[in-house]
Amino acid sequence: MFNLTQGFINGQWKDSISGDTFEVRNPFNDELIETITDCGIEDAELAIDEASKAFKVWRKTTPKVRSGYLRKIGDLLLEHKDALAALMTKEQGKPLQESAGEVAFSAGFFHFFSEECKRPDGEMIPAAAAGKQFMTLREPLGVAAMVLPWNFPIGMPARKVAAAMAAGCTCVVKPAEDTPLISLAFAKIIEMAEVPSGVVNVLPCSRNKVQQVGTLFCESPKVAVVSFTGSTEVGKHLYSLCGKSVKRVALELGGNAPFIVFKSADVDLAVQGLMAAKYRNSGQTCVTANRIMVHKDIYEEFLEKFKASSSTLKVGNGAESGTTQGPIINEKQLNRVVRIVAESLEQGAVLEMGGKTEGCCYLPTILTKVTPEMACWKEEIFGPVAAIGTFDSEEEAVEEANNSDRGLAGYFWSRDYSQIWRVAKALEMGMVGVNDVGISNPETPFGGYKTSGIGKEGSKLGLDEYSNVKLIDMGGL
Description:
Blueprint: E1 7-9, E2 12-14, E3 21-25, E4 32-37, H1 41-58, H2 63-79, H3 81-92, H4 96-116, E5 123-126, E6 133-140, E7 143-147, H5 155-167, E8 170-174, H6 180-192, E9 200-202, H7 207-219, E10 223-229, H8 232-243, E11 248-252, E12 257-261, H9 267-279, E13 289-295, H10 299-310, H11 331-346, E14 350-353, E15 357-358, E16 361-362, E17 365-368, H12 375-378, E18 385-391, H13 394-401, E19 406-407, E20 409-413, H14 417-426, E21 431-434, E22 449-450, E23 453-454, E24 467-474
Parallel strand pairs: 7-8, 7-10, 8-9, 10-11, 12-13, 12-20, 13-18, 17-18, 20-21
Antiparallel strand pairs: 1-2, 3-4, 5-6, 6-24, 11-23, 14-17, 15-16, 19-22
């Protein structure tokens, strides 16, 4: 059912106009999974044209009708969860249980927005003068072009597409080059839900064509908004391109999340939280704990317990039972993790465990004696490397946590009620987890401060990225 090799444009499965193809390989063993169509600028122009035509009809559908489609998509994702999870693990490498969880996570966005799109929005505003009334209403922007990451290859299209469809927009989706197959399976779910043709279009393309397709998204007058999840560097480039036409952008970019363990923290729960925040998806998440700060008085206890927990992780093929850590997505990213650890050790960090590759995997690694000038502290690692330093005071920890141009997420652990409120308010991040790391949910806004992005995904605020608010001034009353 999900053995798909063509792009999905206007409800039809199509080969690229050029006839070009590219290979998709398993990141664990480099085995060829599939050879698929390689869409280029001509295909993207066609998809944008069809999405623009479909928008004229889709925008007029009632919230109840859109809700029905969204609910059906969510139901189908859950119905086919096992098959989708198996495909995702084969293509992306994450453990099977994480893949299954991501499919359920994806369904949650469609179910949430199936309800959110039905809720009335807008307001009546009293006028200062007699005989008139102001009101506002929300209207869809138009065609939404979406550029996806490889680390959550069905979760991210779900979070974007569900909100866009709910708002009344149509979508042109470009999957990551490493993980196009699960996005094509997602398109199949859209087809199975009988979503009208042209509302959602999916264009797989290789690294050779991604720049020209991305540039078209930013420059096409028929695209109303570009939504991108990925690195800060690429996000800045797309932002500059969109600026030429004053196009709306929604950017969810890189992070460098602090993880602070205060003296009053429950050490066991903090360790449990760090295991989830650091090692999920082998550390390949934008909200992973990157700069770990532990109060000096509990440092030894924390480190001992964290090392013990980390040593229980099983590295290997994500499709095999018991595996908790899959491969790094590709050789370039693996080499980057190797470089960051090597540079940090040269700068004086101490290797407590790991620090080695095992095929395409990187072993869970703990570095201590870490200081702010080290590579593992300044850069977003995107791998299973825990960089740990110590601190003396709350002020020191907060100052260092905020000492970054990134501001996506942060976490801290404390049982001091007053401290919890002080620190939660003081951290310069869009999302703060207090004694918890489950910050990404359909019901909650996801997005950062500083160079970590613009806008919010998820929650009722997710509709804002795909909507305009119109004022209507009613006179002569």
